[in-house]
Write a structure and sequence with these properties.
338 residues, alpha/beta, eight-stranded mixed sheet, six-stranded antiparallel sheet, 12 helices, 14 strands, 32% helix
C-alpha cells in the first residue's frame, strides 16, 4: 500500500493506519453506475477500497454526462457499457486496487452471484424492484448494504445492516404502481444532489468497512435546493416478510426471461433465461442485410429505421423507440431470435 497516496486519510482519527489497512482488504459491490454510482465508485476507488465490483446493465449516452462524472463524450459517442467505461477510468485513477466490471442486469438469477464474497453492497440503482431484490439477497447472506436515491432536488440514504436496523422492505412494503412516483425524466435531477447523496453513501461505506461506531442508524433525507436535512429513526417492522420472517419473495421469483420499461428512455430491456451466450460475429452477418450493425467485445448495436437495439453477450438487450412491451418482445424475437 502506498502510504503517500492515502496520507491525508490515514491521519484522520476515524480511519488511521489500521483503518486504511482494513479498507485495502475490503470487497465492495456497487449496483448501478449512473449518477450515484459514479460518485460512489470514484470516491471508494480514491479511498483505497481494495476490490470494487462494478455492476451495471446500461451504456453511456450524452444525456448522462451532466451528472454521471465517470464518463466523457468519447464514451457516449462509442456507446460504451457503463461498467466497462467506469472500470477503464478508475484503473487510471488507482492501480493499487482490483476492479471487476460486470455488464449485467441485477435480477433473481444474478444477484446472489454478484454479491458473493463482498463485505458491503452500495445502491446506485434507479428502481424500487431492484432495491427490494438487493435487500432480500443481502439479508439472506448477512451482508450490509446502503440504500440511496435522488430525484429533482431531494434525496435520501439509509444504512441497512441485517440484525441491527430496519430493512428496505420495512420502509417500502411493495413497489409503487408504474407512473405513481416522480422520476428523473419527469422531475429532473440536479447533479449536485446526486454528488451529495453519493458522497454520503461513500462516507458511510468507509465507516462500516473500518468498524466505526459512528455508523448512522437513521434514514437521512436531504433537499439541496432549500438546504434542509431530516434524520428519521426507523425500527424493524415486527411482521416484515424479510427481516422478521426470512421470506425472500423477490429473490425466489421466476428465473425466465423478463421485460422492463426503462425510466425516461422510450426503451425496454429484455433479459433472457440465464445461460445465454451470443455469437456477435454470426448475428452481425445476419443483421447486416436489413440494417446498420457494429459490435465490440461488450455489445452489438443494430439500427433499422427508428429501432435501435443494443445487445450484450448474455443475450440481454435494450430496445429503443418501441411503443410497448409487446413490440419490444416481437422485435427481439425477430432480430435476435433467442
Amino acid at each position: 500500500m502506498n502510504n503517500d497516496r492515502y496520507s491525508r486519510q490515514t491521519i484522520f482519527p476515524g480511519i488511521g493506519a489500521g483503518g486504511q489497512a482494513r479498507l485495502a482488504q475490503s470487497r465492495v459491490a456497487i449496483f448501478g453506475l449512473g449518477a450515484l454510482g459514479s460518485t460512489i465508485a470514484d470516491e471508494l476507488c480514491r479511498a483505497g477500497v481494495g476490490h470494487l465490483r462494478l455492476v451495471d446493465r446500461d451504456y453511456v449516452e450524452l444525456g448522462n454526462l451532466h451528472r454521471q462524472t465517470l464518463y466523457d463524450e468519447l464514451d457516449a459517442r462509442d456507446g460504451l457499457p457503463k461498467a466497462a467505461a467506469a472500470a477503464a477510468r478508475l484503473r487510471r485513477v488507482n492501480s493499487d486496487i482490483e476492479l471487476d466490471a460486470e455488464i449485467r442486469d441485477v435480477n433473481p438469477g444474478t444477484v446472489e452471484r454478484l454479491i458473493e464474497n463482498v463485505d458491503l453492497v452500495l445502491d446506485g440503482t434507479d428502481n424500487i424492484e431492484t432495491r427490494l431484490l438487493i435487500n432480500e439477497a443481502c439479508h439472506k447472506h448477512g451482508i450490509p448494504w446502503i440504500y440511496g436515491g435522488a430525484v429533482g432536488d431531494s434525496g435520501m440514504t439509509m444504512n441497512i445492516i441485517p440484525g441491527e436496523t430496519a430493512c428496505f422492505r420495512c420502509i417500502c412494503p411493495v413497489a409503487p404502481p408504474p407512473g405513481s412516483m416522480p422520476t428523473c425524466s419527469s422531475a429532473g435531477v440536479l447533479g449536485m444532489l446526486t454528488a451529495v447523496i453519493g458522497s454520503i453513501e461513500a462516507a458511510e461505506a468507509l465507516k462500516i468497512l473500518v468498524g466505526s461506531s459512528a455508523v448512522r442508524k437513521t434514514l437521512l433525507a436531504f433537499n439541496i435546493w432549500d438546504s434542509s436535512t431530516e434524520y428519521i429513526g426507523l425500527q424493524p417492522v415486527p411482521d416484515c416478510p424479510v427481516c422478521s420472517r426470512g421470506r425472500y419473495e423477490a429473490l425466489e421469483g421466476a428465473a425466465g426471461s423478463s421485460v422492463t420499461m426503462l425510466c425516461g428512455r422510450d426503451a425496454f430491456q429484455i433479459v433472457p433465461p440465464s445461460g445465454t451466450e451470443v455469437d456477435f460475429a454470426r448475428l452481425a452477418a445476419r443483421l447486416a442485410v436489413t440494417g446498420s450493425v457494429n459490435y465490440n467485445q461488450f455489445m452489438l448495436t443494430y439500427v433499422s429505421g427508428e429501432l435501435e437495439l443494443r445487445l450484450f453477450r448474455d443475450g440481454r438487450a435494450i430496445l429503443k423507440n418501441v411503443r410497448d412491451e409487446s413490440a419490444a418482445k416481437s422485435a427481439y424475437a425477430q432480430y435476435v431470435g433467442l
